[in-house]
Specification:
three-stranded antiparallel beta sheet
């Protein structure tokens, strides 16, 4: 497994722990154990690089969240916040 650093156009830097990464015209995909882990629309990705850092079982996701809370999607978080604003 590797740690990849993504520079996104609107969300800044995000780290992903994955086995592999593919770059297509439409998307940038990350895979772990042969399964799709994360997918980003190619136009939102400025750059992708393998960092050489050792995977820490979710540490990089947490660090990315602490740097920018919007960079790590949490199921229900945004829908609950939106529902709260609308009520």
């Amino acid at each position: 497994m590797k740690v990849f650093r993504l520079e996104l156009t609107h969300l800044g830097t995000v780290h992903v722990e994955a086995d592999s990464c593919t770059h297509g015209e439409e998307s940038v995909c990350f895979y772990r154990a042969g399964r799709l882990l994360a997918e980003y629309v190619a136009s939102t990705v400025k750059s992708v690089e393998a960092t050489g850092a050792q995977p820490q079982e979710g540490l990089y996701s947490m660090l990315s969240w602490m740097e920018n809370p919007l960079s790590v999607p949490t199921p229900g978080l945004f829908s609950n916040a939106y529902a709260h604003e609308r009520s």
